Write the structure tokens for this entry.
Amino acid sequence: LSVSNGSTTSNFTLTAAQVAAGFVNTSFAAPAEGQLVQVTAILTDIAGNASPQGSDAAQIDTTGPSSATTGITVNPVSADNIVNAAEAAGPVNVTGQATGEFTPGDVVTITANGTPFTGTLGADGSFTVAVPGSDLVADGDKTLNVAIRITDPAGNQADIPATRVYSVDTAATGAPRPSSASIGFSVEENP
């Protein structure tokens, strides 16, 4: 067996174990990041008959995603970005969008009040994660910490962070009360 990367050739006399396994391991110097590595192989039998050349190629990609290749937007937690009493009593769907380099199914983790809540990216990069309103209210700095474990097409992974600051107003507004100054009455004497 003769295997080459175009500049270096390795020759092997195959053992019965290698033939049974169907492969042989070899290595070549890795090209630079982003470069293509091409490998060819020719198998020659004992009589000197050569097989057709087989080949394969791969691009070197060992660089993981970063904030330069992946963007994350976290939408307001509500229409006004203020958690009210009704929202505090139930789950609040926190939504957002990843753009650039990502893979559908990448895991989104949103931390509120020290508790992680997870979801996944859709095919378009969107996500929705239900967070209990009570945890939003109890969160000390009123900041959602979002991290998405991004996987690029080569399988490299990195956690890309984002945040969303929000407010809380759960105080009920009272009904108007008349003041005693606005109530008047008169006394009439009957003759």
User: Anything to note?
Assistant: The chain has three helices and 13 strands. Helices lie at 16-21, 85-88, 133-138.
